[in-house]
Amino acid sequence: MKPEMKIRDWAERFPELCRVEERIIFTIAPGTTASPVDVETETKAALAHPIASVPLKDLAPRGGRVLLLSDDLTRPTPRSRLVPAILDELNEAGVPDTRIDILIALGTHRAMTETEIRRAFGEDVVRRVRIFNHDFRDPQQLVSCGHTPLGTPVLVNRRVVEAGLVLGIGSIVPHPEAGWSGGAKILQPGVCGEETTAWTHMLAARQADHLGLAGVEENPVRNEIEQVAIQGGLRFIVNVVLDGTGQVVQVVAGDPIRAHRAGVAAARRIFVRPISKRARLVIVDARPADLDYWQGIKPLAFATRAVEEGGVVILVGDFPDGISPIYHAEFAAFGRKSCAQLRTEERRGELKAGVCTEALYLHAAILRIAKVMCVCRGMTVEERGTLGFHSAGSLGEALDWAQEELGGSATVGVILQGGDVLPCIQMEGGS
Questions:
Q1: Fold for domain 3-30+276-425?
Q2: Which of 3.40.50.11440, 3.30.1280.10, 3.40.50.300, 3.60.15.10 would CATH assign to domain 39-270?
Q3: Do 183 and 172 form a contact (C-beta atoms < 8 A)?
Q4: Beta-sheet pairing, 272-275 with 422-425
Q5: Fewer beta carbons below 10 Å: N end or C end of the chain?
Q6: 192-220 per-position pLDDT tens digit
Q7: Cα torsion 224, 162, 138, 121: sign
């Protein structure tokens, strides 16, 4: 697709892009498909013919309890279309709605409101089954399932261990630490305690190429997440792959690892987008990961694959929840620290290894590569300053600042829906 076509795609929101049209060397966005699948039909087929698993009907514990783990509002999963098909399949297998619960796998995100739950799952699902928010910091909700061989403590929501069958629902897009979302991530970090999630996240922070984990499905962090999930009791998944317009491309079901890998193969074609070379200035649209900066770090991390070292990234998003409803104080205190300074703070005991600490290391690694200009409504200028960001009220103002920093001839790259897009340098003559 030609750059000017992508500019028109964004022109309604950001007409200022036309000012740099001659300098744009790439414009990338999630791929699209001309033949989306029917979600309900494809889900029923996937449940009847799962990957590396017996059909869901044969797994269903007659008379027992079934727990559906579902991702939250930070993911685009079409729950209102997936869940009814799953409930119907369980009903046919002898498990009534009264024996089925849904636990929203929030991980370290904020709880969903009743309005958000009704919007995400639909009135039919809300009437049929009980839906709960997971709270990763509530010890009353957690049960120990021992430790993994690497020593990770497995603390999971007690509803998981009380269920006769645990099934995970989610979607597959690139992820900064786990390589890809979906699969076993629905349990870890989805419904685990803070201590468990701290271990897997710090495992990411200790990798030599922290920023290089995204898009790599076989990495140490993903492997440990899967170990926690299997040990915690995850038996079956239903994952979707969506294209750039939100249409479902594929539904995969079955074994939490092998079914996930099948979904990743389809997701890679949609979300890993080739570029010929890095740009000096990259403009990244943070959608759909712009609820808060806790999500917004994803598009920023992905953008480092596309910007020259010492260049500028303009991060554009709404961020209505600010930096983070949960970890605002930590980012405010340490958001301007370098990786070396964070390690010093750790040694002193001023900064404890944990989920937010890993995010701070990721944030510091990003700032080591490029300067960041943030254009948003939800974060105040002061909050952006605590993150070490420069601040602008509009994209036009940000482009003026970038021109002063880089000069008027700097090459430009544009990433649309950057929360899901992973740039990849395309070598001459091949991949």
A1: 2-enoyl-CoA Hydratase; Chain A, domain 1 (3.90.226)
A2: 3.40.50.11440
A3: yes
A4: parallel
A5: C
A6: 999 999 999 999 999 999 999 999 999 99
A7: positive
